[in-house]
Amino acid sequence: MASAARELTPREAEAHPPPEAVVVRFAGDSGDGMQLTGGQFTLSTALAGNDLSTFPDFPAEIRAPQGTTFGVSAFQINFGSTAIETAGDQPDVLIAMNPAALKTNVGALKAGGLIIADEGEFGARNLAKAGYAEGVNPLTDGSLARWQLLSFNISQLTMDAVKPFGLGNKEALRCKNMWTLGLALWMFDRDRAPIVEWLKGKFAKAPHLAEANIAALNAGHAYGETAEISGPLKQHHIAPAPAEAGLYRTVTGAESVSLGLVAGARLAGLPMFFGGYPITPASAILHHLARLKEFGVTTFQAEDEIAAIASAIGASYAGQLGVTSSSGPGLALKGEAMGLAIVTELPLIIVNSQRGGPSTGLPTKTEQSDLYQAVYGRNGDAPMPVIAAASPADAFDCAIEAVRIATQFMTPVILLTDGYIANAAEPWKVPDMSGYAPFPVHFLAEAPEGGFKPYGRDARLARPWVKPGTPGLIHRIGGIEKQVDTGHIDYSPANHQAMTDLRKAKIDGIADHIPEQQVTLGEESGELVVVGWGSTFGPIHQAVRRQRARGRDVSHIHIRHIWPLPRNLGALLRRYDKVIVPEMNTGQLKTVLRDQYLVDAKPLNKVSGQPFRIAEIEAAIEEAIG
Amino acid sequence: MNDMTPLKTSPKDWETDQEVRWCPGCGDYAILKAVQRTMPELGVRPENTVFVSGIGCSSRFPYYMETYGFHTIHGRAPAVATGVKLANPDLDVWIITGDGDALSIGGNHTMHLLRRNLDCQILLFNNEIYGLTKGQYSPTSRVGTRSPSTPFGSVDRPASPCSFALGSGARFIARGIDTHKKLPEVLKAAHAHKGASFVEIFQNCIVYNDEVFAGFTEKKSAAETQIWLEHGEPLLFANGSKGLALDQKDLKLHVVDVVEGDWQAAGVARHDQTNHGFAQMLIDLSPVDGMPMALGVIYDHPRPTFDRAVVEQNQKAAAGKTPDLQALISKGQTWRVEDRPHTV
């Protein structure tokens, strides 16, 4: 999102989508390497200076049966010379590597859009696997008339290109994705050199494979260039997006969360302990952190989700920054241990890369349906701060903010991302770390005047953090209700009331130490405000921008701090006549806002496992204030 | 770094000011005393010692030890302890658990802690019953145990804690009895072993399962029903009048009579605490079958510990690298946008 400094002009906003942006979707079998192709195309797009946003969409099965519709893996990228904040509503170009990919993706393609299909894969067997009736071939029966169709035998062209390298049939066909990438690079006037370098590195141990893939890449590029075909296949040049000066890279949410956690731990002056258990789509964070030992990171792959959080709590108790991460089902398992961290008042970061639920749900699809679980999902009165990232780049700052709150207030903190944020890539202006104020942790090293109180409190109501091993401060903690100040076991009625009140007051008080809610786009009052959180930022922002360009009185408020909510939010919301809350759930933030502020927040919900389209939010705005 | 120099302490130094809240006559009192008597002999410092427990009667233990202590949640003490030890390997970590805590709700964590070989002591207070929840049968209760949840007697077979530990890859397995004078010796051996030291302590629950171990703990018959193991020493009991011999044909231990102390003539085997197969045979001996209960150190065969391996790998992976955060976040394929408008 928003790496571009320039916003759309009203004229640009009129267009759907703006002319300087193109949406391309690569779709193929899960074995066709579409995610890899998309990833490399993303890199070349970033290097060309375009702003971009991507949406990887892949099946839960590692090797779903070949050729089937449920085995289709797709990668969509929206790039352009203006600010790009979503992966795009409808693709302009669909590259379909087989009948199943065409069948499942063509419906999304913009009318008049371009289909590039590998006709070599459209044999009777594959057509049947994709569920086409016998004798029906969409490439020839005219059913794709709404779109422009270019089909050629990519499989054969690839085989021809890699022939000199003596690869077997199977290996040769694996180069298909590079042929396709080559063609795409030509279409958008891109430099092949970085991809060639990448291939050389990737296949350093098998140079003949590197050569074959490079040959396929060049052949695809040459195919476009020699223009054996005319008509719809033409070269486009998308000018770079004007952006703030500085160093850029692409980043996925999983990467930026990992980097943000490392940065946060350093700003706090703490080594980090990460306890994790493999789960889609959160595992990538464990993978990234496992390589960063020199930053004082210890990673521990635990035996289950409970052990992952319990070990992180143990590490926090011993004086490190305990971190755990999971997705919805894992969060559910961690619930009891979160309560332990709340009662023992230890810092802890819990990252939840949300996915479709309930239960196993949609492991590889995105959803925002764990907000209730994050805010309310524990036994007892168990308040805990919750922060939600808007995008891959935003997740970096959110992770740092989570560490700041956890260590300054001695509390576990939940950081919400989702499958979309975790996997999607976007350009990120690399921040200058010297601009971040450190928030060093002070461990209590000796008894203060008046004696040591394990559950004594500072001005923020945080209790002292004492490392075991510290002489003179020996004490015990645990999950049984603690006595005010001493931390001894105490079940007495007055004490439980006092401790429950203290725990609540401590978390509520964090609202004094977070920024006030700003209006993200628009006015501080008016006819309508669209309130969002998490990865719906992009589509909401674009929809509001376009509707404002059309003269509608609509504003956008994006909430990062889900709990506690910013102090001024209630008053701010009351200044609008209407409030719409688009969410990829059945209305969870909506319920929280109604409960907290008695505002008539109206839900706009989508739980298909796919992100909102800009048009869907625009339609809701038009309906509300027509 | 913690101050690791040995410290002279007395049992008193390991007692807290907290009122002990177990039932009068509970075996836990005796175990607490045994631990408090053992600690001074280890030369360790209270501030470097952490007792971690789960949930259950036994798990109140940390409140009564003048050390750092963490009373966690049901079954999860091994997982919390793993985080504590990995975060600070200098700490001397003791896990206090029970049969329900360690083998039922926390069975998974116990298994993995043992196979990883985290350097710590695990004291499993086995009373074959759920005490704190008022007397339900537990995973170690014998078939036929009548309890509020099994009014007609339990029908499922019990787990053997030491068998479970051995099967999980434990490298130190020992047994003791709550009130037995040799318990401190067992605890000392457990502490001396580098790695996960698993100790099953038969603990009498006076309220819900009184005398369940009387078959081998009663003083008057103890000599006949207990065999205390010593590495390298013959497997003798009943004041030396009986021993255990290995039958080469069925590969089983049999009780043999020892005449005038000539245990060699009787074919009595010597205890080898590094022998895995032997450990299994000793664990399986049951007074129910007329065999003595094997007590003391059954298995002690050290190998490298998990915490050490993690620390060494971390150091190796970090060696020669400078933790430059700015460089880290600037990694990968990057591009620079200049102040002037960008043209291609």
Characterise the protein shown here.
The complex is a heterodimer of chains A (626) and B (344). Chain A is of the alpha/beta class and 626 residues long. Helices cover 36% and strands 19% of the residues of chain A. Chain A has 21 helices and 20 strands. In chain A, the strands form four sheets. In chain A, strands 9-8-10-11-13-12-18 form a seven-stranded mixed beta sheet, sandwiched between helices. Chain A has a six-stranded mixed beta sheet with strand order 2-3-1-4-5-6, sandwiched between helices. In chain A, helix 4 links the parallel strand 5 (114-118) and strand 6. The two termini of chain A are 28 Å apart. With 344 residues, chain B is α/β, with parallel strands linked by helices. Helices cover 28% and strands 20% of the residues of chain B. Chain B contains eleven helices and 14 strands. Chain B has helices at residues 27-42, 77-87, 99-105, 107-116, 161-167, 183-192, 214-217, 222-225, 276-284, 306-318, 325-329; strands spanning 49-53, 68-71, 92-98, 120-126, 129-130, 136-137, 172-177, 196-202, 226-229, 236-237, 242-247, 252-257, 293-300, 334-337. In chain B, the strands form three sheets. Chain B has an eight-stranded mixed beta sheet, sandwiched between helices. In chain B, strands 10-11-12 form a three-stranded antiparallel beta sheet. In chain B, helix 1 crosses helix 6 (183-192) and helix 3 crosses helix 4 (107-116). Chain B is globular, with a radius of gyration of 24 Å. The N and C termini of chain B lie far apart (56 Å). The model of chain B is unreliable at 340-344 (pLDDT under 50).
Helix content of chain B: 25-40%
Distance between the termini of chain B: 56 Å
Oligomer: heterodimer
End-to-end C-alpha gap of chain A: 28 Å
Approximately how much helix is present in the residues of chain A? 25-40%
Mean pLDDT of chain B: 96
Question: Which tags fit this structure?
Answer:
heterodimer, A: about 625 residues, alpha/beta, six-stranded mixed sheet, 21 helices, about 35% helix, globular, disordered N terminus, B: about 350 residues, three-stranded antiparallel sheet, 11 helices, disordered C terminus
